[in-house]
Amino acid sequence: MTMIDTHSHLFLEEFADDLPEVMERARQAGVSHIFMPNIDSTTLQPMLDVCRRYEGYCFPMIGLHPTSVRAEDYEDELAVVARELASGRKYVAIGEIGMDLYWDQTFQKEQEDALRRQLDWALDYDLPVVIHCREAFAPIYKIMEDYRSTHLCGVFHSFTGTADEAQRILEFPGFYLGVNGVVTFKKSHLPELLSSVPLDRILLETDSPYLTPVPYRGRRNESAYVQYVLLKVAEACRCTPDEVAKQTSESALKVFGMLK
Fold first, then answer.
1. What is the per-residue pLDDT across 138-150, written as a single tens digit (0 to 9) for each?
2. Superfamily assignment of 3-255 in CATH?
3. Model pTM?
4. In what order do the strands lie in the sheet with 31-36?
5. Is 124 left (phi over 0), alpha (psi -120 to 50) or beta?
6. Which residues define the annotated binding site?
7. Which positions are annotated as binding a divalent metal cation 1 (predicted)?
8. Which residues are annotated as part of the binding site for a divalent metal cation?
9. Domain layout of the chain by residue ranges
10. Which candidate in 93, 189, 199, 234 could, as Cys together with 244 as Cys, close a disulfide (CB 3.0–4.6 Å)?
11. Sheet holding 175-179, edge to edge
């Protein structure tokens, strides 16, 4: 049984002391691919270094995270994304992008502008997008409506929204819901919600080092723990773990352009 971790930040300093061991545990757990979303210009080189070190196992994305969008320098940050896209370097997606109004709404307009421009680039370069959405579903969905007739595709990373929001995302045929350790939390509503979501519209992720699943909640997350997400999704969807592993892996390879 093999699984794909579609969202993991193993290039962050939390893994500086034991990255080889983290990677080996992921392999032993059956993780066949790890997709790595960028955050901003400060994380670009560390991410590329890890993907180069583990070429063929770790795959980079390029994008500007919404919490890194600030009025004074977001244009410069977007210029880095544009430069990388034009460089010919192989990126599997534009991400992680989106909007985050949980901590601060000061730069909402700038976040909306950054999102639109990166969605346009996704179409230009025929790449999927990985969308970060925190307390921002309404403005993100309003923007996405303008792309309904395009071939835009991707994943709503770390989906924790309502059943209605899930159905509205799934109206876009090329979009998937990214499910991570939150699904294992005691008070999570996701197991009930996922029971009505087609299995072929779900992707597995960890968001390492964050959102560690039960039974390791409270510790640093890592890609090997995607197995606990898989087991909970299998329970919620009334499928076998093998079925979930097979379908979510096939969907991940499809959306990230590896089945073309």
1. 999 999 999 999 9
2. Metal-dependent hydrolases (3.20.20.140)
3. 0.97
4. 3-5, 31-36, 58-60
5. alpha
6. 7, 9, 96, 132, 157, 207
7. 7, 9, 96, 207
8. 7, 9, 96, 132, 157, 207
9. 3-255
10. 234
11. 94-100, 129-134, 154-156, 175-179, 202-204
